[in-house]
Write a structure and sequence with these properties.
This protein has about 300 residues and is α/β, with parallel strands linked by helices. It is built from 13 helices and eight strands. Strands 3-2-1-4-5-6-7-8 form an eight-stranded mixed β-sheet. α2 packs across α3, α3 packs antiparallel against α4 and α12 packs across α13. The longest helix is centred in the first third of the chain and has 22 residues. The structure holds (S)-3-hydroxydecanoyl-COA (HSC) and nicotinamide-adenine-dinucleotide (NAD). InterPro entries: 3-OHacyl-CoA_DH (IPR022694), 3-OHacyl-CoA_DH_CS (IPR006180), 3-OHacyl-CoA_DH_NAD-bd (IPR006176), 3HC_DH_C (IPR006108), 6-PGluconate_DH-like_C_sf (IPR008927), 6PGD_dom2 (IPR013328), Mito_3-hydroxyacyl-CoA_DH (IPR052242), NAD(P)-bd_dom_sf (IPR036291).
């Protein structure tokens, strides 16, 4: 623990700071990370698997920038427009991974939550990126040390766990594995601050800080619903009005994606079968099997289809 806090007292010289970043994955999280990096003066390359997906990512960044700009420059439409255009000009979307990492300082991986897919990507990145490039994963639940195993740069590897929606959520968990060098960790912490986030330091433990507490709470809410103790609506209202949460557990699960929720809890159960907090939840598994994935599929614990709204 002493080691974790000691590192954050040092500061990196301006010449040594992270300026160019590559975000792999332009989905919910990757597009948010790219957006915030661009608005905080970084040069960003955003990679996804197809031009179509990248177009959608840019559209969602535009929409989010418009919301931020409208608030930030409430009485100055021209300044809001300039803010949006400046930020977009700092983001280069591409499907070419090799080109995207050729002179980057930091790669942030935000692709699907699957160890094999992440390993395949990091093997490729390790070959293509220059020696000085730091790698980070935005994984919600997979061990950073295990993701890093396929690279030859564990000393330049860490976790940067952002929260959804990235432009609004102030927290960034910065995770180190035993091999992460002090120099790397220091740079990651400073990058987080440069992104305008409040950083917290954490070891490579399941769920880090937030998800280790949040996931059991959300699963317990689902078990409560499964037992028929209360309705989803009332459980959500209770936690919002009685505990001060901005979203109830089911609104949040729908927002994150029920497939992601299920992947996390089932994965932890496999790794820690003795822990009762990580027991799979049949209701969640059934909803995912039925294609009810939350907001992204139009239905989850609540219905988001236009006709029923
Ligand atoms: C099994 C369990 C699984 C757990 C999974 C873990 C996943 C992961 O690893 C960790 C997480 O992320 S955990 C998840 C962690 N996340 C949480 O826990 C989220 C909890 N929810 C919240 O904090 C709030 O509900 C929100 C901030 C999302 C929306 O706020 P609201 O009041 O309900 O609704 P509003 O009135 O619409 O918007 C309010 C303001 O926000 C602005 N805005 C919104 N989205 C924006 C965007 N994309 N861009 C730009 N701006 C955006 C908007 O413009 C507005 O500004 P104004 O100044 O008021 O005009
Ligand atoms: N959804 C959340 O609330 C949340 C919050 C924090 C962290 N995370 C983590 O962030 C990561 C991404 O989650 P998400 O919700 O943004 O997922 P998402 O499904 O919205 O986006 C993933 C994107 O990665 C792309 N992709 C997949 N394989 C790729 C590859 N090999 N190369 C380039 N792009 C590839 C997909 O096309 C997709 O656009 C996951 O590890 C997840 O656990 C998610």
């Amino acid at each position: 623990m002493a080691q974790l806090t000691q590192v954050s007292r040092f500061s990196t010289s301006a010449a040594n700071m992270i300026k160019k970043i590559t975000v792999i994955g332009g989905g919910l999280m990757g597009s948010g990370i790219a957006q915030v990096a661009a608005t905080t003066g970084h040069k960003v390359t955003m990679v996804d698997t197809s031009e179509d997906i990248l177009q959608k990512s840019v559209k969602s960044i535009q929409a989010s920038l418009a919301r931020v700009g409208k608030k930030k420059f409430a009485n100055d439409e021209a300044a809001g427009k300039k803010f949006l255009e400046d930020a977009l000009s700092h983001i280069k979307p591409t499907v070419n991974i090799k080109e995207a990492v050729k002179d980057t300082d930091l790669v942030i991986e935000a692709i699907v939550e699957n160890m094999d897919v992440k390993h395949k990507l990091f093997r490729e990145l390790d070959q293509a990126a220059p020696q000085h490039t730091i790698f980070a994963s935005n994984t919600s639940s997979l061990p950073i040390g295990k993701i890093a195993e396929v690279t030859s740069r564990k000393d330049r590897f860490g976790g940067l766990h952002f929260f959804n929606p990235v432009p609004m959520m102030k927290l960034l968990e910065v995770i180190r594995i035993p091999e992460t060098s002090d120099e790397t960790y220091k740079k990651l912490l400073e990058f987080g601050k440069a992104m305008g986030k409040h950083t917290v330091e954490c070891k490579d433990t399941p769920g880090f800080i937030v998800n280790r507490l949040l996931v059991p709470y959300m699963m317990e809410a689902t078990r409560m619903l499964e037992r028929g103790d209360a309705s989803a609506q009332d459980i959500d209202s209770a936690m919002k009005l009685g505990a001060g949460y901005p979203m109830g557990p089911f609104e949040l699960a729908d927002y994150v994606g029920l497939d992601t929720c299920m992947f996390i809890i089932d994965g932890w159960h496999k790794d820690y079968p003795e822990n009762p907090l990580f027991k799979p939840v049949p209701l969640l598994q059934k909803m995912v099997a039925d294609g009810k994935l939350g907001r992204k599929s139009g239905e989850g614990f609540f219905n988001y289809k236009k006709s029923s709204m």
